[in-house]
């Protein structure tokens, strides 16, 4: 199985490298960072100050086509994104196509007027990436609040989640990707990686 990480616009390289490392371990997958795709033309809503997720997905599909059933593409955009019927999204997935997306802006503590905290930002980015890749394999939202597949309505929901699948969700993943049982990956207590 192959997961492609596709930066959309400008995304810090260390952020991408760290996401690749974690996703490779968690999904027992070959993960590659590709060249950047441009920000979607006409996808920015000036009134909202956000990008439309549908436009981002269209640009992602044009820039990084999926050629095989076992491939997945995770777009990473350092912008605020909304979807139809939602004020914003931390991430979004189209399980029919295998395309997933995470938006970094609302994962930064500074967005909520808190002090910058790279370790927290890094952890949030990884959680959202794992969550969306999980959706790309057909996993649904999980009712267990600590499971990585639990829906995040607020950033507090993301912070409450563990960086692991609950036993029920973990049991479903090998069936979805025909791989060995997933290792549980715990985020390091302290990270030296800089996302920004």
TrEMBL record:
Residues annotated as signal peptide: none
Gene3D superfamilies membership: Collagenase (Catalytic Domain) (3.40.390.10)
Cofactor: Zn(2+)
Chain segments annotated as coiled-coil in the UniProt record: none
Matching InterPro entries: MetalloPept_cat_dom_sf (IPR024079), Pept_M54_archaemetzincn (IPR012962), Pept_M54_archaemetzncn_arc/bac (IPR012091)
Pfam families the record matches: Peptidase_M54
Any Gene Ontology biological process: proteolysis
Record carries keyword Hydrolase: yes
Keywords: Hydrolase, Metal-binding, Metalloprotease, Protease, Zinc
MF annotations from Gene Ontology: metallopeptidase activity; zinc ion binding
PANTHER family linked to this entry: ARCHAEMETZINCIN, ARCHAEMETZINCIN-2
Name of the protein in question: Archaemetzincin
Lineage per the UniProt record: Bacteria, Pseudomonadati, Candidatus Omnitrophota, Candidatus Velamenicoccus
């Amino acid at each position: 199985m192959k997961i492609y990480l596709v930066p959309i616009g400008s995304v810090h390289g260390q952020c991408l490298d760290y996401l690749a490392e974690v996703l490779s371990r968690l999904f027992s997958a070959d993960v590659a960072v590709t060249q950047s795709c441009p920000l979607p033309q006409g996808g920015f809503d000036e009134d909202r100050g956000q990008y439309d997720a549908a436009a981002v997905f269209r640009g992602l599909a044009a820039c990084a086509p999926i050629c095989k059933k076992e491939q997945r593409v995770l777009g990473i955009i350092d912008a605020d994104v909304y979807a139809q019927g939602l004020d914003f999204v931390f991430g979004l997935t189209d399980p029919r196509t295998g395309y997933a997306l995470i938006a970094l802006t609302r994962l930064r503590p500074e967005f909520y007027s808190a002090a910058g905290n790279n370790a927290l930002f890094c952890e949030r980015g990884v959680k959202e990436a794992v969550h969306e890749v999980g959706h790309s394999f057909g996993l649904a939202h999980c009712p267990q609040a600590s499971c990585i597949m639990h829906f995040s309505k607020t950033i507090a929901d993301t912070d409450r989640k563990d960086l692991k699948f609950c036993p029920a969700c973990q049991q479903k993943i090998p069936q979805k990707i025909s791989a060995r049982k997933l290792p549980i990956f715990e985020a390091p207590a302290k990270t030296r990686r800089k996302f920004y």
